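Worked problem 6 (solution included).
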Amino acid sequence: MNEDNLVKTILEHKNILIVDDEEKIRDVLQKYLVRTEADIKNIVHAGDGREAIRKLNNQEFDLIIMDIVCLLYTSDAAD
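Solution. The predicted structure is:
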């Protein structure tokens, strides 16, 4: 199995959450995921960690792609 087919297989039928404070980065990641031509169930965006947590409380995700700095910033702000 080549790398492209492997990525496609991994993404099949997944609910994916993309978390980043930069909308352009979220959009680029979504475009990449769509280009794999995998049968992805759903791609959801969140602009920060708090929004991601709200979305996680309402829906189950199989894969989360997150800017770790976004998570750290949210954690610091919550303290």
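Discussion: The longest strand covers residues 15-19.
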